[in-house]
Write a structure and sequence with these properties.
It contains 4 helices and no strands. With 119 residues, it is an all-alpha fold.
Length: 119
């Protein structure tokens, strides 16, 4: 895949994966879609927490202190696009392992966000 945005288009169902892509593997494609969903849910719960007076704990997401929404949205958009592009260059085994680790971490982050919102 020469186009760096093509992996994200495949994950979103906007394009079909070439046979050489790790996303031709249905399990990896499913994990990539779970990752995208977790990113969206993390973004939504983070923004809801900020609106309730919470603060972002990740220092990388504090790039624009006067614009908290941009501080969350810009890195999330970059990460959500970069991960499929990077995993597409890995072996199928490494891509599966990467998505399992990332999805587990973001699942835990999402649970923490929900816990914070419930307070």
């Amino acid at each position: 895949m020469a186009n760096p945005l093509l992996p994200m288009a495949v994950v979103l169902g906007l394009a079909s994966p070439p046979d050489s892509s790790v996303f031709a593997n249905e399990g990896i494609l499913r994990q990539a879609r779970v990752h995208t969903l977790l990113q969206a849910l993390d973004t939504g719960t983070t923004l809801a927490g900020l609106a309730k007076g919470g603060r972002e704990l990740n220092p990388l997401l504090s790039l624009f202190p006067n614009h908290p929404n941009a501080s969350v949205m810009i890195p999330k958009a970059l990460l959500t696009t970069a991960i499929p592009a990077l995993t597409n260059k890995m072996s199928k085994k490494d891509a599966k392992t990467t998505y399992r680790i990332i999805n587990t971490l973001y699942g835990l982050i999402l649970l923490n966000n929900l816990r914070q919102l419930a307070k």
